Amino acid sequence: MGVGIEVKALNAWYGSNHTLQDIELTIPANHATALIGPSGCGKSTFVRCLNRMHETNPVARVTGTVRIGDLDIYHDISPVEIRRRVGMVFQRPNPFPTMSIYDNVCSGLKLNGFRNRRELDEIVERSLRNAALWDEVKDDLKKKSGASLSGGQQQRMCIARALAVDPEVLLMDEPASALDPVSTSKIEDLIFQLKSQYTIVIVTHNMQQAARVAEKTGFFLNGRMVEFDSTHKIFTNPSDKRTEDYITGRFG
Amino acid sequence: MNRNRGRNLRSLWRSGVDHLATGLAILATILVVAPLIAIFFYLVYKGASSLNWAFFNQIPKPEGEVGGGMANAIVGSAVVLLVASLFGIPIGIGGGIYLAEFGRGTKLANAVRFTADVLNGVPSIVMGIAAFSLIVVPMHHYSALAGGVALGIMMIPTVTRTTEEMLLMVPHSVREAALGLGVPNWRSVLSITLKTASPGVITGCMLAFARVAGETAPLLFTALGNQFWSVSLNHEISALPLQIYNYAISPYDDQHRQAWAGSLVLIALIVIAVSLVRFVTSRGTLKGAS
Fold it and tell me: CATH number of the domain at A5-96+167-247, out of 3.40.50.12780, 3.40.50.300, 3.30.360.10, 3.30.750.24?
């Protein structure tokens, strides 16, 4: 089951570059929340702060609190552990090139020492079904490399891989931006189904996509969150002039 | 009409240049491969006639007598190279992992990288002297162990630098994928990054192995050589390059012939060992794996 996310006074830096400034935000559990904004506005940095991937960059720094469920992720838990609870799907599909489809999907479990064969089989099937990929790959699960799939299939495999560790939150950083329209719509259908079980945060450049999949939308600009409201409100009647300018295509 | 002719001339000139460039590339390829093939055929020509069963299952005959073989040298080379690989490859790979994954940009890493490059250029006889003073002198006698360590030290820089290069070629996105799954960094380095880079790392190890397999100088005052059977790490041991060297400078024709045969066998064994490792490690590679 998904859990809610509460962000307070979040600031993030890359070196001397202050990329996120005083973000305050509450993301509801078991919903999809979209983050939109022009390139370089800090939305990717923001999601990377939610699973502490931000700090894997040696020059990165972060202050403030992020509560996921009842955990303060910067104090109560190690970065490695929080990433098992907060899954992430990246902009470009990043399969492990030497592994089969099967091993790719259960890599998160296997690499953490989980060895029960029968349970792994079940988890792989369930994750691939959840990622709407099972029927396309079930015959060569262990024969084919994950890198041999098409781009859209690879991305769904990466989603299955993230689901296999049974996270509470799924972060998606422009998951469809490198894909063709057919694959994109498959991923969107998937997000629609998954949000009943997981809390989903999706970064997107595509405003139609945000409107299609998310109940809530946040608009980022220059490292600040300008507006956060229901998606319907943001796209039909935004309260901030800058949001309106962005969604009507006056800049960005 | 005139313009047409100009165009024809130009395309003629272009295809001429194209053919010329292709021809030059083919010529360069031939020049690269020719010495290799020449050496190999000359070895076969000189050495094959002296190859017989005795060569592989007998030890050298006493000086002046005809016959005998290099069985002890073949086994000795295997022992020394095994010690060298067990010593040099883990240290080399460990160093490469440090350079690529943990020490990136640090002063220590730069120092290690520089040292490895210098070590790569150190003449092999100097490696022999180093192993002599480090192992032979304290132990008070020559040994297979000392020879193996001398060759192992020679393997380290090649293995370290290729491991580093190959790890750096693994895309950042693959590392992020592992970290994003909540895999601890050390586990990600060993099971994901190193595994992804493994074909290149193995090539580096094989290069280092093949290079030291033919080394004579570092063995001269470490393993020393032995006319008799020995597989003990604690005693002098024979090795193919040593035996070839001893026979080549001897006054007897039969020993010259055996030196040729030994050279042929040495090259053949290196080729076999490298192909075997390639075969074993390429099994289980998946369809479409990059």
Answer: 3.40.50.300
